Amino acid sequence: MTAPRKSDRSQRNSLNQRNKLHLVLRFVAILVIALLAAGTAVYFLAVPADPFPLPAEQVDDPPNPAVLTGDAQTGESPNLASSAPVHDWQSSDFVGSQVCADCHFEIAEAFAEHPMANTLAKVEDATSIEVLEDNTVEFATHGRRYRVERDGDRVVHTEYMTDADNNIVYEQPVDVHYAIGSGENARSYLIDRGGLLFESPVTWYNDKQKWDLSPGYHNNPRQRFNRRVIDGCVQCHSGHVNPLGDGTSNRFGDPPFQELGIGCERCHGPGKRHVEKYEAEDWDADSETADKLLIVNPAHLERGLKDSVCYQCHMKGKRRILRKGKSFHDFRPGMSTDDVWTTFVPPAPFDKDGTAQFSSHVEQMHSSACFVGSEGAMSCTTCHDPHRSPKPDQRAAFYRERCNTCHSEHGCSVPIEEREMPPALNSCIHCHMQSVGSNVPHTSQSDHRILRNPSSLQAEQQPSTRGEVWSIFGDSEQRLPEWEVQRARAIALSDQAIEEMNQPLMGQAITALESVLAHDRNDVHVLHLLGYLYELTRNHAQAKSYFEAALRINPQDEMSLKNLGLVGFRTRAIDLGLASYGRYLKVNKWDGTMFAPYIRMLAASGDLRAAAAAAEQGLQLDPTQLELRDITVKLYERLGDQKKSQQHLKLLQEINSQLTPWDQKRRDRLQQKVHKSQSADP
């Protein structure tokens, strides 16, 4: 609920050495970044096809394998056997939390302070939690510098680089439009480019009171301002999204959000009929049965449906595979989560180094003795009040009271004098839900396994689970049609194979995905995943056929357009590559990662001036692309413009000298990952 308010040739040759990691080219390693959720389109490392250097490593988040719908106005769960798209997103069905507040003022006032209500805000309206003295702050990391500036309602994030004499090498300011995250742990920022949302590389970490790179950028800062924010991200960080098309395109309307923070209707369903009923002159105050049909009260739902209200955002698992024809925006309170998606979880809720899998609170809770002992009676709201969040100084007492609803007779065995000493301060969660590591920097999360003796278990070495196929969480496997289970397993297997760089799993995934196509030849997501996996194994012909098949169904499928362009580049099919990239640019002109192969094909076609113009466009989007900068140097040489060629060469040399140390560290990590992967394969 939102409260009303507010850079000589030898130098260039050395650049190409980083593309000669034979192990990497053999295995086509893809780094996977787990985030406030997960995933955009994945692209390939390219093999040299002409004298120009290789394209930059294009390492994005993997696709959260999901073809992206539901309804539930009545609080009743639809028939699982039916997966026909519904896409019931009509804004007219939603009234907004402020309307709810007219009658439910006390609850609304309390919820306005809840972290959920403050998950998203326009930057000009966001509560000020950042340290921004004199409205500006700067920090340096990974060979770059960043500046955050506020000028009235405008907030600008700038990435720049200076030379040894403090002269600007490049500078890229970008306006940010939305602050995402309640700020309890961190706050990140979104860029709205005409309905395409991107993440800023800059985040404020509240726990550490510092500015730093955003989650996922520490392993791949090359994402810069190009990291796409997708439907699955905004679904959990906003109250009511305004998606375009079928809700799977990661494109949004103007404005992108109908309601910013999480509001009443995310848990209670669209409120139009409920409001109309109570505004009618002849409403019946005693008609409780009718009330249940007009608004969802989670407390009145059966256990699984009640839990799903929370699980729609708090059960991330390893991957959430959306059912065929579904979208993240289709969940409505009163539905089961498996009406919309199938959740896959790893064999253990913790990585082998003991780091907690981010957003796995539900899976952890289900493994706890408390949950098991309750025989299913325990839920999120057993411990959490969905309408109110206790103040920091009230949390110990608040959660102690919740624990004592079950443990009052057999309470804590530690003497009261000992457990009242700092830092415990008689807090049950301090001892039994200790903060554990997270793969999000500068943050931690509570261990929802609710361990009786956490210190004895956290020291245990977690066994490697690599190669152990992810499993379906809960009982949806028994409830879904068999073909949908097979589809979900095939998509999850392909994603796991990519994440773990596991060639045997890749082969299994291809076989499984092709079997899925026997049921539905028009499954765009399965088609472009097959194209992707075949391109990973250098089967260009098969990859091409699958990408083209996907595009016949959805001509604007971004992953297929971009990767079909790369297939054209790799196979020297210039017309194919240029046509695909040209179409892609019409869909997403903000992606700087595809310009290197695109420009090389333009140059190969003989249109050097168009290639140079496109190169300048790409460098505007990403001034740090060394490969693209090198191509630009050579293009201007061939055009006879030595002045521009030397200008770009100077920039190339300077940027390379500052970024190479950081890139080498990243390549070393990638090579280690490949070595581990190969040594672990049977």
Written overview of the protein:
This protein has 682 residues and is α+β, with helices and mostly antiparallel strands. Helix content is 41%, strand content 13%. It contains 27 helices and 18 strands. The strands form 5 sheets. Strands 1, 6, 7, 8, 9, 10 and 11 form a 7-stranded antiparallel beta sheet that branches. It has a 4-stranded antiparallel beta sheet with strand order 2-3-4-5, with helices on one face. Strand 12 and strand 13 (252-259) form a beta hairpin. The two termini are 52 Å apart.
Query: Helix segment count?
Result: 27
Distance between the termini: 52 Å
- Described by the principal axes of the CA atoms, the overall outline is globular
Low-confidence stretches: 1-85
Structural class: alpha+beta
